[in-house]
Amino acid sequence: MELEVYNISGQKTAKKVKLDDNIFGIKPNDHAIYLDVKQYMANHRQGTHKAKERSEVAGSTRKIKRQKGTGTARFGDIKNPLFRGGGRVFGPQPRDYGFKLNKKLKKLARKSALTYKAQENSIIVLEDFTFEKPKTKQFIEILQKFELKEKKVLVVLAENDKNIYLSSRNLQKAKIVSASDVHTYDILNANNLLIAESSLKEIEKIHSVN
After folding, report:
1. How far apart (Å, rounded) are the C-alpha atoms in residues 50 and 178?
2. Phi and psi angles of residue 182, each rounded to the nearest 5 degrees, phi first
3. Does residue 121 come out as left (phi exceeding 0), alpha (psi in the -120 to 50 range) or beta?
4. Residue 209, pLDDT score
5. 167-178 pLDDT per residue, tens
6. Is the pTM of this model over 0.85?
7. Staple 1 to which of 19, 79, 168, 194, CB 3.0 to 4.6 Å?
C-alpha cells in the first residue's frame, strides 16, 4: 500500500511512502490481539484490594457462650464471620494480575492492529516535525488541519520529543508515543494514527526482526 506524505499544514507533499505488507498487510490474528490487550489491561490493575480475614480483625478471642446446652448454634469469638464486624470469609487479597506472553505473539498482535488501521484508511503519514517550545495551540492546529480535533489520535514519532509531548499533554484524546513504545491497545483505541515519516522505518525495523 502506498500513502501520500503530508506536512503539518495538512498539504500533500511530493513524497510517497510504501507500507510494508509484512507489517501493514498481513492476515490479522484476532486472538493474538485479544491476548495482548488483555495483558496490557491486566498489567495496569493495581491489585491492592484487601479484606481482613478472621485472624486479622481486632477483637477479643474470648468464647462468647458455652459450647453446649443453649439450644442455638455454637460460636467461638466475636471475630466470627457470621457476626457484624467479623472477619471476611475468603476475602480479596493483594495480587498481581500480570501474565507473560510470547514475544512473537505480541509482535503478531501489533502487526494485526496496524493492518486493521491500514485497511480502514486510518493512517496518515506526516513529514518529520518538531516544536521550538511546548505550545498546545500549535499542536491543536495540526489536528484541525486533518479534521481530527474531536477524534482519538495516536501520534507515532521516531523518538521521544519533549516539546511535542508537552504540547499534547493537556489533550485528552491525543497521545504521543515513540515507534518503540507502540502498543496494540493504543493502536486500536485510536481513531487515527499520525505516523512521522522517519518512525515508519523504525516500526519496520522493530517488527521485521523475528
Report:
1. 37
2. -65, 130
3. left
4. 60
5. 999 999 999 999
6. no
7. 19
Q: Residue 24 burial (CB < 10 Å; 0-12/13-18/19+)?
A: buried
Q: Does pLDDT of 210 surpass 60?
A: no
Q: Using alpha carbons, list the distances in angstroms from residue 66 to 48, 63, 69, 75, 77.
A: 39, 7, 8, 8, 11
Residue 208 has pLDDT above 80, yes or no: no
CA–CA distance, 3 with 6 (Å, rounded to integer): 9
Q: What is the DSSP letter of 22?
A: H
Burial of 178 (0-12, 13-18, 19+ CB in 10 A): middle
Cell readout for 52 is 481482613
Which set of grid coordinates corresponds to residue 77? 469469638
- The answer to whether the CB of 121 falls within 8 A of the CB of 3 is no
Class of domain 2-29+101-208: alpha beta
**Where, residue-wise, is CATH 3.40.1370.10 in the chain?**
2-29+101-208
Sign of CA dihedral 111, 114, 115, 116: positive
Query: CB burial class (10 A; 0-12, 13-18, 19+) of residue 32?
Result: buried
User: CB-based contacts of 3: which residues, under 8 Å, 6+ apart?
Assistant: 16, 17, 18, 19, 123, 124, 125
Question: In whole angstroms, how far apart are CA 172 and each of 55, 135, 179, 190, 193?
Answer: 45, 15, 21, 12, 15
For residue 6, the one-letter residue type is Y
